[in-house]
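Input record (one chain):
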Amino acid sequence: MDKGINYEVKDIRLAEQGRRNLDFAEMHMGALLRIRERFEREMPFKGIMIGLALHVTKETGILVRTLKSGGADVAITGCNPLSTQDDIAAALAEEGVKIWAYKGETKEDYYRYLEYVIKTKPNITIDDGCDLVSEIHKKHPEIIKEVVCGCEETTTGVIRLKAMERDNALRYPMIAVNDNKTKHLLDNYLGTGESTWDGIKRGTNILVSGKTVVIAGYGSCGKGVALRAKGMGARVIVTEVDHFRALQAVYDGCNIMKMADAAKVGDIFITVTGNLRVIRKEHFLTMKNGAILANSGHFDAEIDYAALKSTAKSVREIRPLVEEFTLGNGKKLICLGQARLVNLALAEGHPSEVMDTSFCGQALACEYGVQNRGKLPNKVITLPEDIDKKIAELKLEDYGLSIDELNEEQLKYLSSWTEGT
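The corresponding structure, as predicted from the sequence alone:
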């Protein structure tokens, strides 16, 4: 480990490679760069400390640069022990960012680094999974009075925040960036769809065509994963607890089963539910020899990894973060990334183009919080629709595309109720 006054990273010598990857990401994140240009002129975050707990990837690095360009002081750590890209962490450290992160963090280091970010007394928090917000509320309530707002990146985090709101435990405004259309309908659907399979393929190089893929959960993430599974020639089974989503899966050409039944026939299992112990010991025992287990939900709770380890009579690592568990019945199961986010443990996370719109949302959410300081309720808030539209507009401009506009006659027609058949 390499340590400095304001950083702790695996190897600072990786910084040059990190800069190259950051430059590559910037080529595909033109919408966020347009926001950066405006921030450089207007400096909306002058005097503001922003604390982040996000996946430390090249795309996150571009968000960090954008916030700094707007005058912010930035402190960042990871939001998952296996998701940090060490070259990016090194590059950000050399750029003067306060950063504590490395791939493969122990649980102790993970929470120690969250403490380091909290000690900077952030005025804005940016979270992916709600761990930073949760630690502040539970252990450091004294800093809350100086917090303008927080921003949450993922579905899992929004679920936790809404639970805090119901319990009257939420003590500063939280903007659910995940609820932007330019986030969950793009990042969750496109990003998770592609990057999940990127992780599975890098880890196993298995042929997907002809396999039976079991997807637990059919929200935006599950839909994206299923679409690409079918595109590679797989038969797709969906397990769900929501009747409407199950019906959507049926109409999308998927089969619906309970996990107890799907466990017996699946070749590849992917969890994207946001819940815990979706795949458990009783399921492991009925699975085929050679079945592959992968999780693409935020936390490592969806596959009961502890039960898998205790059930197995032997475990061996076939390649980094690809483990073979031999059960008492002689069958072998393959678990990827220690049941953590497979797209970041074994691949690089979402493509830069997808994270461009997601991180436009984060940057503009921070600005919205500052502009409305003291006016927002201590609740989970969705950004105004016009901000979401602006993000889509910026991305279309980045692609060099333009759309039609309504003329006066069309505007009048759409705002009237008098004209009919």
